[in-house]
Records
---
Amino acid sequence: MDEQQITRELSFKAVRSSGAGGQHVNKTSSKVELYFDLEASEGVSEEEKQRLIKKLDSRLTKENLLILHSEESRSQHKNKELVISKFFDLLRENIKKPKPRKKTKPSKAAKLKRLKAKKINAEKKARRNDPLK
């Protein structure tokens, strides 16, 4: 993953933020939306693209476009920094290769413990039966 190349591929759009803030909010575009085209990206290898498409499936559009936004701050520049850091955190988290699962068997002690518990439970249920039958 080439972060500098990816940064050049990002596109941004400033829009009006919602929520409290009075007149200031109504006339300034402080919310920042980040757009990243995963398919066309040259900063991500094909293997990483496939992994990201699989893991971020619910967050991607039909055209494999990732859209993130930030409206935490009243400053457009601060929101841009926040959305970029959020974006790279998301990429780093989802680009990791999953560890292969190591198959394990239950220990002898665990098997004996399970069988002992089964036996106690069976005896408990057997005592519930009507003794006259």
Note: The first helix runs from residue 3 to 9.
---
Amino acid sequence: MQDIFDLIGRILLSFIFFFEAYDYFAFEQLNRRAMTIYGITWNQDFLLYGAIFLLLFGGLMVLLGYRMRLGAIMLLIYWVPLTFIVHDFWEEVPGTEDYRLQSLFFMKNLAIMGGLLLAATHVSGRYRLRRLFATTRVRG
């Protein structure tokens, strides 16, 4: 049962990163405008496509359980700065809708960071890519 829960957890954790990578690609101009609003004007192409790379490959590594520690670190490299730049609820007026919404998003991202830290220190279970390759016998 533990191996199945491990697989389901990796699937659920990785989906948010795939969705975010899709969003960055599909709505590239909107994301560039958002970057400008948040004061991120240095080399936007590099940062945007770098984020897509980290999200896709980090998410894939976590999903497949292959080099999961590296994948989790790649995702944290993206996720930590994003959380503190975009969801800065402490800049909002307490008690307002923006304060409430940004603080919820900030806490959600903290929970995702916790999941990534667990993934970085965890060896994935039976259902992982490396184990599949190690147990598959090819006859020639």
Note: Residues 1-121 form one domain.
